[in-house]
């Protein structure tokens, strides 16, 4: 049976959603892996993502829980799973690890050991799901953490800890004020499973939470304001492309250096290709499609592969081309006879009055260097992608091909002109295209 979410909590959720606007694209396009302990904070996190799943149609998240083998009540772990399983219709990964034994073996504190194991596990899962990690940290946790780090000798970076988004970890509860968190906890009757170790003075963090934080709050410390003083909420920036503005011109195709791809791991290669696709306003590849693409790349042969949105093309020696199916290079040219202007692929050229633009028929040849050469062979040598070749304009005169308009495909490539004098006027870019 699913938990109810009160109207007041839904209003807080909506306000928090508006505050994390820079992350909307990520949240709506990638699945979240939610780190769930069973406590108050992770319960709010879980219900917030449940609300987002219903209201904003985000991808279904995955719930991750780790039993640290510290709880004194083993029955409680069973109840946590039963509650999550009966309440949230998401995939779940519940694991158990003897953190105290691992801590002794590594010579680290229980907190350090548990955190290291959790994040290592979460990273594996987020890579598998091609998603991102979500934790329930908020501003009070931040205040505890900086005090903990300073006590241990931390420097300036101690104040910059727990960013909104770092190392593929997202912390949306920083969008909730402490007052809003308290309001939610008082308004809702969700099941909370508190770890009994949180009440033990054996741990430094617990002593900070129990004795130092209350004193600071009584003296007027404001965790929300302190966090904002050292953190800004910013949209995650692509490491490959940075958009200067939202109305930038989307290219008609992109080319990925094959040597770069070959030097990457499978995960890095997928990330790399998907970022190129995103810059073309296209969706990332699915896992199965990427596997097929990788198999073709490894064979080092020429191939043409397509999904619903994109052509992926490569010759034996060329780089990998990504061509959107709505690209202007896959549409027929436009010709304005009054101005004698030929337009194609976002470029244009003025042509002489004695030439007629056309598409290249099968088997057509052009006279070059005293020989008749098949145009298809020239296009192959120039590594023009197969899906583009049938749309690339030519210029005819006296029933013969006089010009292959390669410059309309790529202005850096010159036109191929037949062995006779043809006046070709300078190319120019179409304004606003």
Describe the fold and architecture.
- It is a single chain.
- The protein is an alpha+beta fold.
- It folds into 3 domains: 7-230, Rossmann fold, CATH 3.40.50.620; 254-324, no CATH class; 328-429, no CATH class.
- The protein contains 15 helices and 20 strands.
- It has helices at residues 7-19, 24-29, 40-55, 74-87, 99-106, 110-129, 139-151, 178-187, 204-218, 223-230, 258-262, 266-279, 287-299, 375-381, 386-389, and strands at residues 32-35, 62-67, 91-96, 132-134, 165-166, 169-170, 254-256, 303-306, 310-314, 320-324, 334-336, 341-344, 347-350, 356-359, 365-368, 371-374, 393-397, 400-404, 416-417, 427-429.
- The strands form 5 sheets. A 6-stranded mixed β-sheet has the order 3-2-1-4-6-5. A 4-stranded antiparallel β-sheet has the order 7-10-9-8.
- Helix 5 (99-106) packs across helix 6 (110-129), helix 7 (139-151) packs across helix 9 and helix 7 crosses helix 10 (223-230).
- The longest helix is centred in the first third of the chain and has 20 residues, at 110-129.
- The protein is elongated, with a radius of gyration of 30 Å.
The CATH superfamily of the largest domain turns out to be HUPs
Helix content: 25-40%
The geometry reads as elongated
- CATH secondary-structure class of the largest domain: Alpha Beta
Q: Beta fraction of the residues?
A: 15-25%
How many β-strand runs? 20
Class derived from helix and strand content: alpha+beta
Number of domains: 3
Poorly predicted parts? 238-247
Number of helical regions: 15
For the termini, the CA-CA separation is 55 Å
- Spatially, the strands of the biggest sheet line up as 3-2-1-4-6-5
Main sheet specs: 6 strands, mixed
Q: So, CATH architecture of the largest domain?
A: 3-Layer(aba) Sandwich
CATH fold type of the largest domain:
Rossmann fold
Rg (C-alpha, Å): 30 Å
**pLDDT average, as an integer?**
88
